[in-house]
Amino acid sequence: MLCSALLSFSQTTYYIDQVAGNDANNGISSPVKTIKRALQLASGMVYTSTKVPNNKRVAVLVAAGDYSENNPIIGLDKG
Fold it and tell me: Distance between terminal CA atoms of the chain?
């Protein structure tokens, strides 16, 4: 019983679909359109408001397609 409790991890999955997605969506129940938006949402789950990792697991699933974005993907600034 203890072993199974230690091996079970909860994970939030974000979905990206350039055709059916919309960046106004939450990415969980309906996909976002851009990789940048998914990463913004995911980083909000992985880090606290004070930019400290909170040990939550996140997956980002990308539908097949040609993703071209005009904006650079900007990571979390820990400074």
Answer: 42
Give the separation between CA 45 and CA 17, rounded to whole angstroms: 20
User: What's the pLDDT tens digit per position in 12-54?
Assistant: 999 999 999 999 999 999 999 999 899 889 888 888 778 888 8
Torsion angle, alpha carbons of 50, 73, 45, 7, to 10: -120
Which class for 7: exposed (0-12), middle (13-18), buried (19 or more C-beta within 10 A)? exposed
Residues paired with 62 in a beta bridge: 16
Looking at 1-79, which runs of residues are DSSP E strands? Answer: 11-16, 57-62
* pTM of the predicted structure, to 2 decimals: 0.71
